[in-house]
Write a structure and sequence with these properties.
2 domains; 4 helices
Length: about 130
Amino acid sequence: MAGPRLTIVSVIVALAALVLVFELLRRRRLREKYAVIWVVISIGTLVVALFPRLLGGVAALVGIQTPSNLLFFASLIILFAVSLQLSREVGLLEEQSRKLAEEIGTLKLRMDAVEKERAAEQGRPPSVTVPDSE
């Protein structure tokens, strides 16, 4: 199976990933819902690094001949799930941005109308507003 150097490097990388995730959480640079998947991946990497025969046993149980193929397949599934989740989040954020832009436009129109009414009540010409350039 894996040599002692690979085991040591894998353990160090998994522990570094765990420390990084917790540090990002502490600094509020990573939200909890995203941290969970990275903690699970880091712990899974740590378990596989410490017990490499476990990967071979799971591969045999699933019917995959080479344990590394199981690792690649699991990585592919995880990447697909993360990509799908992030795509969903982007779609929701785009919808929120569109709604907020519409609300801002509506509020600007209302504000202009109120300013014109006040100017007319006070008998002075309405102030000219310069539209935002985008």
